[in-house]
Amino acid sequence: MAGYLNRCRASTLMEEQGLSALVLSQPETITYATGAFAGVASFWRRAGAAFVVVPADASRPMVAIVGDLQAKKFSIQSGISDVRSHRIWVETGSISQPDFDKPKRSPRPAQFDLKRSLALLRDVLAEQGLLKSKIGLELGFVPAADYLTFTKLDVQWQDCTRIVERLRSIKHRDEIVKLTIAAELAEAGRKQLINSITLGQTSEQMVEVWRNAVLVAAALRKLNPPSSTWAYISVGGDGFAAGGKAQRGDLIKIDVGCVIDGYSSDGARTVSLGKPNSEAVKVYDALHRAFDAGFALLKPGTALKDVYAGTATSMWNSGFETYGRGHFGHGVGASIWSEEWPFIAALETAAIEPNMVLAFETPWYIEGLGGFIIEDQMVITETGLDIVAPAPRNLRVIDV
Length: 400
Known about the structure:
The structure is a single chain. This protein is an alpha+beta fold. It has helices at residues 7-17, 27-34, 71-78, 114-127, 144-150, 161-169, 173-194, 203-220, 278-295, 304-317; strands spanning 21-24, 51-55, 63-67, 83-86, 134-137, 156-159, 228-235, 251-260, 263-264, 267-273, 327-331, 340-345, 357-361, 364-366, 370-372, 375-380, 385-388, 396-398. Helix 7 crosses helix 8 and helix 9 runs antiparallel to helix 10. The longest helix has 22 residues, at 173-194. The N and C termini lie far apart (56 Å). The mean pLDDT is 96.
């Protein structure tokens, strides 16, 4: 079976919540679980374009429901033998097969027919004796406009969003490789950018320098270029907006990531173009100490809220008692952007586990000073952590 879903772990988490099965519907989750593309209909990001049924009994096979355009390829990619299909808007055919079995004078839906895909889902659940059971559904993804239709199935839907998040937070070695490559390419580009910054450059020009350097780094390693890249580079100003042309004393925040096969890295550094003013140095030093305080707590078994508390307390003890950053980092993976659960937040009781990949950060955006950020991507190991693409954390001062 392709994909990265740990069926034993999934069964344990389902048992804890009294669930008989999971019905996966978020495109990223389906690809994670099966290794297969959920289909073009999933681009609408409406529940029902595709489903994967994961029984709590790990000995029972998964079943998939996808658009008819993708059904054959989905089965090949995923290794799932039972793949059922519903009609989507794309008309296809084969010169070698007659069309006598196709419906006559029956237009396809403009997107896909949710009622039809749910009817197929009901058939699967009935065949597996799962009707009237407690079934997990990703309610964090299912639109409110669609949920009423789901309630017409004779099952007890329970939210399994956190179960899915917990499953996806523990990365397979292949996922770690993708995230590592992404981070290394991003850091290679950032290093080149820092060595190239000059007076008068704009954020947009810096982004172009960084992206070009990433492509060069990929070529030198004989790697395919990232499928996409993202960059939040700010010059002076408030630290979040792009800002204007770089001037002496400006802080430059470089928060960048590369995407490899859907997996996005995340890391950041701050530099000063010329000597920074004393207030900026004071803030950066406090953020650096806070980073070190939280970083020392990043190990398996530590509650995420304790990492938050250690980091925040350091800032408060440095005299910044109103500093209230909502989280000091997050998981990275194949989400729709660079942040996913778990979050290093004040009320997050979940513990750090081996094979989580986290981005730990201490940012602050201050109007009149600029953007401050230190952020490292790391893989949690059995005993501690490994930093991916390490780089100096000091405030780099660029001579001009």
